[in-house]
Write a structure and sequence with these properties.
With 375 residues, the protein is α/β, with parallel strands linked by helices. 39% of the residues lie in helices and 13% in strands. It is built from 14 helices and 10 strands. A 6-stranded mixed β-sheet has the order 3-4-5-9-10-7, with helices on both faces. Helix 2 runs parallel beside helix 12 and helix 5 crosses helix 11. The protein starts with 6 loop residues before the first strand and ends in an 8-residue tail after the last helix. It holds the Pfam family Peptidase_C48. Belongs to the peptidase C48 family.
């Protein structure tokens, strides 16, 4: 029996542009144990941006579609225009050059890039791409700590550990559990991820390419509740944060790809050359809350963005530890929250449709043809 896919809603609804159509099949992805698909990721990110982000913060933020990074690294079909004489970074940029025709990324403080590789979601956040160097200013929330407190923090084992050690601040039990999750994920990849591997220029598993970028800043610094008030200064610096709920391989190739994209984007938009190399824009993997199963990576990506919107980080000193960013218990209800939101918006749109005349119905019909998200 053929399964019937029904459009539940379009968000944002017409006449707004770039509406995302959510179907009953997409809603099923929110069932426990299922992987979130790109529609749910893009829908909820757009909802957060339009409904939950303060206007002053929205102006300085940009959220890319989940298709952006995939398209950036997607190899061209054989029948397309030959651009082989161009450097690889310019060929990649050409694939997405129209995605920013109405936006200047270098006027933004934060650019969010959801990424799916081999059936696993994680998040890249490009911070302060318009800055050429770190900017340090007095911390208005600074509260001097007692000598005993300062000594305890500075002498903590986590703060003393070097960034190149295998132990990144996790306990042996954490490492063992993480290995089990990663092994399980690899088994899933064999089933779901094989088809992606032949169509991407970004071979993140390639050791040679990764090693060109040295390593990411391995974030194992000590975090306490009062961290933001304990330092006399706050820092804003160009950096790329990689937030991954299944900490495993370094994502240095992703950072390298995004740096190269920014360099070409700057050249196209500004008409001049500017380096976004590792000396200018560091790559860093903050310690963030981790998933405790094989299927919640997408849910964590959504929560990372939501927490970033709710409680913007006041300072960007690296390394960064965000393990206490949000309570783990919040993740237990996240799928149901999003499902209830979709059903609530569906009811609202149905009521609006019933009180609307036929022109409105025609508009909704055409909106179903709008791509998942505007570029």
């Amino acid at each position: 029996v053929a399964e019937i896919f029904l459009t539940l809603l379009v968000y944002p609804p017409p006449p707004a542009k770039g509406g995302i159509s959510v179907t009953n099949e997409d809603l099923h992805c929110l069932t426990d144990g299922e992987f979130l698909n790109d529609v749910i990721i893009d829908f909820y990110l757009k909802y957060l941006f339009l409904e939950k982000l303060k206007k002053e913060d929205a102006v300085r933020s940009h959220v890319f579609s989940s298709f952006f990074y995939k398209r950036l690294n997607q190899r061209e079909r054989r029948n397309t225009v030959d651009t082989s004489n161009l450097p690889i970074q310019k060929r990649k940029h050409n694939r997405v050059k129209t995605w920013t025709r109405h936006v200047d990324l270098f006027q933004k403080d934060f650019i969010f890039v959801p990424i799916n590789e081999s059936a696993h979601w994680y998040l890249a956040i490009i911070c302060f791409p318009g800055l050429e160097k770190a900017h340090v200013e007095p911390n208005p929330l600074y509260q001097p700590q007692t000598q005993a407190y300062s000594t305890a923090v500075s002498s903590s084992p986590a703060a003393d550990r070097g960034s190149d050690e295998l132990d990144d601040g996790r306990s042996a039990a954490d490492v063992n559990r993480q290995t089990q999750y990663t092994d399980g994920l690899h088994r899933r990849i064999e089933c779901y991820g094989a088809e992606d591997s032949h169509h991407s220029d970004d071979q993140s598993s390639c050791q040679d390419e990764c090693s060109e970028d040295d390593s990411l800043v391995d974030d194992c610094g000590s975090f306490v509740k009062a961290e933001w008030t304990s330092k006399p200064t706050i820092c804003k610096q160009p950096c790329i944060l990689i937030m991954d709920s299944l900490r495993g391989p370094t994502r240095s190739t992703v950072v390298k790809t995004l740096r190269e994209y920014l360099e070409v984007e700057w050249e196209v938009k500004k008409g001049s050359q500017r380096s976004f190399g590792k000396d200018v824009m560091k790559g860093s993997s903050p310690r963030v809350p981790q998933q405790d199963n094989f299927s919640d990576c997408g849910v964590y990506v959504l929560q990372y963005v939501e927490s970033f919107f709710e409680n913007p980080l006041p300072s960007f000193y690296l390394p960064m530890n965000l393990l206490d960013w949000f309570p783990q218990q919040r993740m237990k209800t996240k799928r149901d929250e999003i499902k209830e939101l979709i059903l609530k918006l569906q009811t609202q749109q149905q009521l609006n449709l019933e009180s609307c005349h036929s022109p409105c119905e025609d508009t909704l019909e055409s909106a179903d043809l709008i791509p998942p998200i505007s570029s």
